[in-house]
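Question:
Write out your own:
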Amino acid sequence: MQNLLGRTLELVAPDRAQVVRLLAALARNLADAQLQGLSAENRFDAAYKSIMQLAMLALHAHGYRPRTSVPGHHQTAIQCLTLTINLPPATVRLLDALRKQRNLSDYSGDLVPESAVVDCVAAAGDLQRQLREWLGRERPELL
């Protein structure tokens, strides 16, 4: 991640209060993603947002944050999960496919299939569990 510093990442001081806020926000988004009264697009957006909050939190725990003024910060945050919490590359590829689905929906108006909503909610739940385990093991002072 050091080689991305100044290009797509910047340094921050890890902060327990921010970690707690992000954990609460992503839990709310994940709960919203499961509300059957919402459209598939809105449930997908809420689940994807929780994935991004988890990826941002993982970077934050290491003292980094994406430079949001630089294009591709979502991709950077997702790809760094292999480095931040040792997420397997296959899982990162799945998360990146969900990012691409989100882009199609947001920028082209494509409909989100229910199967993508299910995949996104499941991926967000799995990532939440893995990140909490990692934080508990590696950075318990942030919880």
User: Anything to note?
Assistant: The chain has one domain: 2-142.
